[in-house]
Amino acid sequence: MIHIEGRQSSSLNGLWNVIIDPFDAGSGDWAAYYKDRKPLKNSDFVESAFEGGPQFHVPGDFNSQLLELNYYESSIWYKRTFNVQKTEDRRFFLHFAAVNYKAEVYLNGSKIGEHEGGFTPFQFEVTDLLKGGENSLIVKVNNQRMKDGIPGLGFDWFNYGGITRDVDLIETPKTYIKDYFIQLAQHDENIIDGYVSLDGPSKEQDIEINIPELHVRFKSRTDKEGKAILKFPFRKKTLWTPENPKLYEVRVSAETDHIKEQIGFRTIKVDGTNILLNGKSIFLKGINIHEEVPQRRSRAYSESDYQMLLNWAKDLGCNYVRLVHYPHHEKMVKIAEKMGLMVWEELPIYQGIDFANTGMKEKMNLMLKEMIARDKNRAATIIWSLSNETYSSPSRDSSLTALYYLTKSLDNTRLVTSAFNNMRFEGNKAYIEDKLNSLMDIMAINQYLGWYKPWPETDKEVEWISKFNKPLIFSEFGGEAVFGNNIDPNRASSWSEDYLADIYMRQFKMFKNIPFLRGATPWLLVDFRSPGRAHPIYQKGWNRKGLLSDRGEKKKAWHIVADQFINNFN
Ligand code: GCB
């Protein structure tokens, strides 16, 4: 099911009762928290209860809701009750926008399913399990890092656990519009190419796509699988651009159901070393963003949180954002779309992923499908990124190759990339090496010249050499500085603002000599929490590579990037 905001639903957000379960006792037969047992006879006792314990906000991470859970990595059980009026002709679904990392869901004492993956939505049909009147919903959430998890055991961010995004009870007719893909054809911007699919007992129905503002009506009929291919002429529209992020109301109707959504239309392609938006060459002026509100030390979870992060990106002069290192909330993407920001979305296939593990392929495929299913109608989303900083091995190469082709088979209207950091330096020459660049539509390179990799000792500018005839985006570059710190501008180890400003000045100078550079995304918008950053004076558990401090103060480097984006890259 897609476009949750367009459905008839009741929100299950709010305060939930929780049991903290550091030893994972609640899954065993004795404790069995999912049974939510109560003492009935005088001789009964139960050594747990949801009532009387802490209550946590949903959506929201659990690490930030109780001081003692700051670094917690284990299980928390959540419970809430809700009432429902059942009717014979309706179906009901429990929809979770994301639970980080593993979820087990119990309704009225029965397990209804589980899900692995912290950043994509999932749902369970509960039509036959709901009771009229009060229902009890229990969710076990576990955020332990796992060798075969995605991400794996190590990563450079604070991976807040919990029911981090919205929970809804969604109601549909017996046969409902489960999915639709309505975008311009890759080969012809005057055609809409896509599909509608229905789920339920009466799969063969007349359907209609209606775009009232343009007087467009397209009629078709779904087949016995419930699917109708959409292919129809679509002219005289205003294309979505960062300057004019035009969206149209699109109504999708079947005989038994209808839904409407704001959808934009644009094309995105690569031509040699150029990136073309609606046929015109563009330079992607971006910023990396984690889904965190640093001032509150928690996961971002509300529209105002997303708006704050994206307003900063706009102030910086960006026309695009790289949402790292996992799919962010779909509302974040929708707000970016309304603001005219193009979006790079990414899977959490990060650094130490255990590609050779037998279960990995299935998990990667599922995450990819969930991400694309959710956002495939977003005009803003122009890039699917498969991974970040992985190194060639037979299992890595075959996994990312398979994932590339799976992405294209699900959606051929966007560009696909992976961020690599394995270039080869020789003197002042930097060679772009990773052979998977020959497959990807765009080369994306994370390079930390001036920080992890000192500038070469030569009076010549660094020269970038690519054997691939493709556009390049520097998906990461930058360094660390503490806001207001100007102790020694010549030493990296003083975390000084001037040292960082110098890195940015030299980076932008270098960019002028790279004709195939078509985008730049500084690392990153705002300082972020990362438990591995242990310098006791300058870091204190924070990665200080933000252009803004954790309180939103502008470092000197911010002004350099803003000046370049606003005045030099138009
Ligand atoms: C990287 C990673 C990013 C880190 C960053 C850093 O290359 O992609 O996740 O946070 O470097 O600060 O080291």
UniProtKB/TrEMBL annotation:
Residues covered by the Glycoside hydrolase family 2 immunoglobulin-like beta-sandwich domain: 175-266
Domain Glycoside hydrolase family 2 catalytic: 268-490
E.C. number: 3.2.1.31
Ranges for domain Glycosyl hydrolases family 2 sugar binding: 69-173
Keyword tags: Glycosidase, Hydrolase
Keyword presence, Lipid biosynthesis: no
Gene Ontology annotations of biological process type: carbohydrate metabolic process; glucuronoside catabolic process
Entry's Gene Ontology molecular function annotations: beta-glucuronidase activity; carbohydrate binding
A Pfam short name: Glyco_hydro_2_C
Broad EC category: hydrolase
InterPro entries recorded: Beta-gal/glucu_dom_sf (IPR036156), Galactose-bd-like_sf (IPR008979), GH (IPR017853), Glyco_hydro_2 (IPR006101), Glyco_hydro_2_cat (IPR006103), Glyco_hydro_2_N (IPR006104), Ig-like_fold (IPR013783), Ig-like_GH2 (IPR006102)
Superkingdom of source: Bacteria
Protein family (similarity comment): Belongs to the glycosyl hydrolase 2 family.
The name this protein goes by in its record: Beta-glucuronidase
Organism: Sphingobacterium athyrii
